[in-house]
């Protein structure tokens, strides 16, 4: 028995030593790594710009002995930067950017992204680090209003124009909506593939040179509309025009009022014509310190006339108003097809003077890592910032630094849900919302994506609305399906043969949404006139 115990101990010690060796090897393989186990003072430089008043702290993550870089105050701007020992060449093989962020108090409006800065020769200083400091890549979460995304922005210099342009990853993943630790990873591969991972799971893949993956495209369009070409003065782009032959009917009275007195109305019995709706309060007395010369003549406050409480009304009776059946409003001639319609004008395309070709993006080297954010919530914790050339190294760090914390936090969250008696409901809702997020990514629903995501967010914040959210999204999906089925049956614009560009703008034709004036006024007035009120309170 003793021999077996010693054997088990030896096996454990050997396994532990191997794990430590792996961690040490990964650390050596990392180009940059900061666990924030040591205070950041002296290593990271806080911006001295006046706008950045937010205070950074070296603090433990809630529920752990693990330290991180903490945002301590709400409604503040923060800026801090760490220079690298050597610039990182992003054009050389694979590059992995990874870090952890935890919203310990939630995040409703704020950023938690990192900026990977160009060398200082580009025109910035660490103590003057701000939102104008030149970066090569911006990566990480950003939430505020309708914005909810994990940014990936490449800032690249156009070799023709010399200008730096921000290229945004299209349809980036959403930010997890909880208070747990999450790890964000961007993998840049030499074949121009870009992968965004959250908690080790691929959430978005793209290609740097694809026009479908970055906006604006990293490779510009070969042609552009001629900026010097102007629309001819005689170009008529009105699809429909007022009928020039239409004549206002003789019986159309534009001066007829919208409402008239109801001559059939009869004054209710018991109406008190001579009683006012309000009377002086008989119990009110003039204050002893009231000075007529300084305060003016004292008047008793008014109260509702008690006699009017049991009567149908008081004061002068007036007939109520009703809708005038003769009302037609301002006459407008009907719209007819414009015989002179030439289609929607657009300038001709010319070769793009700033067009260029390349086999991979021109990444500026990374010389520093900066955090420059504005946030309405405190409690954002940054941790385990890593730059590596091997995605397996990044995975090893996730497994050894992030995952143990996440497991503990997840178990605690589950225990709290069970204690609140909402585990079954919460689990059901999580499944529902996960499915709905996938629905939002379906291509033919892209037009309605923001609307669907807005419904989902409301449901996540107010779990009792889950069923209502489901119904709302089902209605949106059915509407999209209906539009998809029947949009192809719409009659093509008759002017398509006249111009090639008409087809491109068919969605804009006939979309002015104008209504005849009489319809607008009818909508404003609604149905019957409001009933007579005794008094407004």
TrEMBL record:
<dbReference type="InterPro" id="IPR001580">
    <property type="entry name" value="Calret/calnex"/>
</dbReference>
<comment type="similarity">
    <text>Belongs to the calreticulin family.</text>
</comment>
<keyword id="KW-1133">Transmembrane helix</keyword>
<dbReference type="GO" id="GO:0006457">
    <property type="term" value="P:protein folding"/>
</dbReference>
<dbReference type="GO" id="GO:0036503">
    <property type="term" value="P:ERAD pathway"/>
</dbReference>
<keyword id="KW-1015">Disulfide bond</keyword>
<dbReference type="GO" id="GO:0030246">
    <property type="term" value="F:carbohydrate binding"/>
</dbReference>
<feature type="signal peptide">
    <location>
        <begin position="1"/>
        <end position="24"/>
    </location>
</feature>
<dbReference type="InterPro" id="IPR009033">
    <property type="entry name" value="Calreticulin/calnexin_P_dom_sf"/>
</dbReference>
<dbReference type="InterPro" id="IPR018124">
    <property type="entry name" value="Calret/calnex_CS"/>
</dbReference>
<dbReference type="GO" id="GO:0005789">
    <property type="term" value="C:endoplasmic reticulum membrane"/>
</dbReference>
<keyword id="KW-0732">Signal</keyword>
<dbReference type="GO" id="GO:0051082">
    <property type="term" value="F:unfolded protein binding"/>
</dbReference>
<keyword id="KW-0430">Lectin</keyword>
<keyword id="KW-0325">Glycoprotein</keyword>
<feature type="region of interest" description="Disordered">
    <location>
        <begin position="214"/>
        <end position="254"/>
    </location>
</feature>
<keyword id="KW-0472">Membrane</keyword>
<keyword id="KW-0812">Transmembrane</keyword>
<keyword id="KW-0256">Endoplasmic reticulum</keyword>
<protein>
    <recommendedName>
        <fullName>Calnexin homolog</fullName>
    </recommendedName>
</protein>
<feature type="transmembrane region" description="Helical">
    <location>
        <begin position="465"/>
        <end position="488"/>
    </location>
</feature>
<keyword id="KW-0106">Calcium</keyword>
<feature type="region of interest" description="Disordered">
    <location>
        <begin position="267"/>
        <end position="317"/>
    </location>
</feature>
<comment type="function">
    <text>Calcium-binding protein that interacts with newly synthesized monoglucosylated glycoproteins in the endoplasmic reticulum. It may act in assisting protein assembly and/or in the retention within the ER of unassembled protein subunits. It seems to play a major role in the quality control apparatus of the ER by the retention of incorrectly folded proteins.</text>
</comment>
<dbReference type="InterPro" id="IPR013320">
    <property type="entry name" value="ConA-like_dom_sf"/>
</dbReference>
<feature type="region of interest" description="Disordered">
    <location>
        <begin position="492"/>
        <end position="537"/>
    </location>
</feature>
<feature type="compositionally biased region" description="Basic and acidic residues">
    <location>
        <begin position="227"/>
        <end position="241"/>
    </location>
</feature>
<dbReference type="Pfam" id="PF00262">
    <property type="entry name" value="Calreticulin"/>
</dbReference>
<feature type="compositionally biased region" description="Acidic residues">
    <location>
        <begin position="271"/>
        <end position="282"/>
    </location>
</feature>
<keyword id="KW-0479">Metal-binding</keyword>
<dbReference type="GO" id="GO:0005509">
    <property type="term" value="F:calcium ion binding"/>
</dbReference>
<keyword id="KW-0677">Repeat</keyword>
<feature type="disulfide bond">
    <location>
        <begin position="109"/>
        <end position="144"/>
    </location>
</feature>
<keyword id="KW-0143">Chaperone</keyword>
């Amino acid at each position: 028995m003793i021999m077996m115990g010693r054997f088990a101990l030896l096996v454990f010690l050997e396994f532990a030593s191997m794990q430590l060796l792996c961690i040490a090897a990964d650390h050596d393989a990392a180009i940059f790594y900061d666990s924030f186990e040591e205070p950041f003072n002296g290593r990271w430089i806080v911006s001295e710009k006046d706008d950045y008043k937010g205070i950074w702290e070296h603090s433990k993550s809630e529920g752990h002995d693990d330290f991180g870089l903490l945002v301590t105050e709400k409604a503040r701007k923060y800026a801090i930067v760490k220079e690298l020992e050597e610039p990182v060449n992003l054009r050389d093989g694979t590059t992995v950017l990874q870090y952890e962020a935890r919203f310990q108090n939630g995040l409703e409006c704020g950023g938690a992204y990192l900026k990977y800065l160009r060398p200082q020769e580009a025109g910035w200083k660490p103590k003057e680090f701000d939102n104008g400091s030149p970066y090569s890549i911006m990566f990480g979460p950003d939430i505020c209003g309708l914005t909810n995304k994990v940014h990936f922005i490449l800032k690249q210099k156009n070799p023709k124009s010399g200008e730096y342009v921000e290229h945004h990853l299209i349809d980036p993943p959403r930010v997890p909506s909880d208070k747990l630790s999450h790890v964000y990873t961007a993998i840049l591969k030499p074949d121009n593939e870009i992968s965004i991972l959250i908690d080790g799971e691929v959430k978005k893949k793209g290609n740097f040179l694809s026009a479908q993956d970055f906006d604006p495209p990293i490779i510009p369009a070969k042609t552009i509309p001629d900026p010097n070409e102007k629309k001819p003065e005689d170009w008529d782009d009105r699809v429909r025009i007022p009928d020039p032959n239409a004549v206002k009917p003789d019986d159309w009275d534009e001066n007829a009022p919208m409402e008239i007195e109801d001559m059939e109305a009869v004054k209710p019995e018991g109406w008190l014509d001579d009683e006012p709706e309000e009377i002086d309060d008989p119990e009110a007395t003039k204050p002893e310190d009231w000075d007529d010369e300084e305060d003016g003549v004292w008047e008793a406050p008014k109260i509702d006339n008690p006699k009017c409480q049991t009567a149908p009304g008081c004061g002068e009776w007036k007939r109520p108003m009703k809708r005038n059946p003769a009302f037609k409003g301002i006459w407008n001639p009907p719209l007819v097809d414009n015989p002179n319609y030439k289609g929607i004008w657009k300038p001709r395309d010319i070769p793009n003077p700033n067009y260029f070709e390349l086999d991979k993006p021109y990444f500026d080297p990374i010389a520093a890592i900066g955090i420059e954010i504005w946030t309405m919530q405190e409690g954002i914790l940054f941790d385990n910032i890593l730059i590596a050339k091997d995605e397996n190294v990044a995975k090893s760090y996730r497994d050894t630094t992030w995952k143990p914390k996440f497991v503990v936090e997840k178990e605690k969250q589950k225990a709290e849900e069970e204690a609140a008696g909402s585990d079954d409901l919460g689990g059901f809702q999580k499944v529902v919302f996960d499915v709905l997020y996938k629905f939002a990514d379906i291509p033919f629903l892209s037009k309605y994506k923001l609307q669907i995501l807005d419904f989902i967010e409301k449901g996540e914040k107010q779990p009792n609305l889950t069923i209502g959210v489901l119904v709302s999204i089902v209605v949106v999906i059915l509407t999209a399906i209906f539009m998809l089925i029947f949009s192809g049956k719409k009659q093509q614009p008759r002017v398509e043969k006249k111009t090639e560009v008409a087809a491109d703008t068919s969605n804009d034709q006939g979309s002015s949404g104008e209504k005849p004036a009489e319809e607008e006024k009818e909508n404003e007035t609604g149905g019957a006139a409001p009933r007579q009120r005794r008094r407004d309170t």
